[in-house]
Amino acid sequence: MRQKLSPEDNRRAWLWAALIVLMMLVLGAGIFLLANHDWSPTPSLPEADAALLEASQGLDSIRITADLDPISQVLTVTQDMTLRNRTGQAQSAVVLRSWTGAYLSEDTSPVATDELYYECYGAAFNPGGLTLSRTRVEGMPVIWRWLDDAQTVLSLPATWDAEDEVSVTLEYTVLIPDCASRFGYADGVFMLGNVFPVPAVWEGGAWRTDAYASIGDPFMSECANWQVTLTVPEGFTAAASAYAEPIDANGQRRYDFTAQAMRDFALVISDRFTAAQGMAGDTLVTAWARRKSDAQAMLKYARQALESYGSRWGAYAYPAFTLAESIFPYGGMEYPGLVMIAADAIAYGSDTLEYTVAHEAAHQWWSVMVGSDSYNQPWQDESLCEYALMDYIGDVYGASARAGAAFDRIETSLRITIPRGVTPGSPIDYFADLTEYSQVVYQRGAALWMALETHLDKDALDALLRDYQSQYRFRNATREDLTQLISQHSGQDMSGLMIDYLDTYMQ
Ligand SMILES: [Zn+2]
Fold first, then answer.
1. Alpha carbon 394 to chain centroid distance?
2. Which protein residues have a CB closer than 5 Å to ligand 1 (ion)?
3. How many structural domains compose the chain?
4. From ligand 1's centre to the CA of 333, what distance in Å?
5. Sign of the alpha-carbon dihedral angle for 278, 284, 289, 290
6. 208 alpha carbon to ligand 1 midpoint, in Å?
7. Is the same domain home to 218 and 296?
């Protein structure tokens, strides 16, 4: 029999019940907040580490003041450089590589090709490029000369003895064409790759003067110390090879970037970007895209990639790594400290975006930190970045996913018929189109690394690549340098195996 409750008891029971429900709600909310809180440290730009400071000692310095007018699509630049003559002989000229001049004419533009024209220019060609207004050497005005029709090789007269330093000043404007490319403007995004002239590379008694090929990355350069002051209208954001917090005043936004021991300095600027930011070890990672969720996906994959590669080959060298959505018909494009990721790859999402980010992040080790001849030996960085993707997939998704990707991408490429006599070791100007280039250089090229993995075993190959990083970081490694290192780690001459995989034509 139940005892009848008094009204007082009834009220107390209700109060208790309400209290218990309230406590459960508070507890639930607490657990939810704890589970979803990001416990990683607040993202911030770390100081350059001791190894980077040491690498920066004695390098050329490049100081830039640049101002973007997004309405007229003009970047106005003053560029001061202090350059040392490292050629071992007296020179009568300072030779620089400047790449955007090629976009001035349809005859020389690297993207005015059958394959790329429509995707880059749409219906009509739009010219852009660099126009010099003044040049000085040691403070004295000098007359410049372009040594090629595409205006990519710039020569300034100078009396320049071996090991002497010379100061060079360039004043110029860069007209940014309507062009969906690594250099151009499209859909609210300014892609500014290779806009600043860099010292030419001296090799074998001559300056490198490779043409601006349509396929691959025809750029080679040495590391220098960059200081870039950029002004854009307020509301615009600059993703760059280095990271800086902007200062807003009087309707202008100013960035002061410092980039030590870097081969180049690139920018992607937009008034439509939103950021996602986090740390990967000691590196500040920032992803810029037009949609927040895309920036977050790019950030996630970039952090995973930096952690995977850093633990295998040695730490990423620079304080910041930045990704920026770009409008062009390539999946991605690497620059020191900055990678451009195609809006198309972002739109496809899933594997396409993830693998693009992982490939471009691997370039920070292979082509950015360890430089190589990306014109004559493009396999040296591209095949390694394709192979790196296998490691990324293995680290994130496990061994069977890695084996599946190696079959789909690398083994399959060996079975495809390649109609002409191109091999992974061919120079970039041998290839007919981007598909042939990536199947042969990236995927067939990566078969070399899979073979070495079997020959040496995986740990020994990782040790070899760590050694390659530490010996050639901030320098350029030749094919012979790498072949020698592979032979040394194998305990036998491996040049025959390299020729089999790189120079032997397989249909
Ligand atoms: Zn690549």
1. 22
2. 382, 385
3. 3
4. 7
5. positive
6. 21
7. no
Cα of 441 vs centre of ligand 1, distance in Å, is 10
> Which range, of 7-16, 131-140, 395-404, averages the lowest pLDDT?
7-16
Higher pLDDT, 74 or 9: 74
Average pLDDT taken over every residue of the chain: 93
pLDDT tens digits, one per residue of 49-90? 999 999 999 999 999 999 999 999 999 999 999 999 999 999
**In the numeric block, which tokens belong to residue 17?**
């019940």
C-alpha 141 – ligand 1 centre gap (Å): 40
pTM: 0.91
The CA–CA distances, whole Å, from 266 to 52, 198, 334, 419, 424 equal 19, 12, 10, 36, 28
Q: Is 441 a domain residue? A: yes
CA of 436 to the centre of ligand 1 (A): 14
Q: Copy the structure tokens of residue 272.
A: 């439509």
From the CA of 330, how far away is ligand 1's center (Å)?
10
Please give the residue range of the domain that contains residue 477: 379-502
CATH, residue 463: 1.10.390.10
* Alpha helices (runs of H) in 256-338, residue ranges in sequence order: 292-313
Beta strands 202-203 and 61-69 are unpaired
Neighbours of 118 (CB within 10 A): 11
* The two structure tokens encoding residue 35: 């589970």
Q: What is the DSSP string of 210-258?
A: ----SSS-------EEEEEEEEEETT-EEEESS----EEETTEEEEEEE
pLDDT in tens, 189-206: 999 999 999 999 999 999
The β-bridge relationship of strands 74-84 and 91-97 is unpaired
Question: CB neighbours of 364 closer than 8 A, spacing ≥ 6?
Answer: 306, 309, 316, 318, 321, 334, 336, 337, 339
| Pairwise CA distance, residues 221 & 194, whole Å | 11
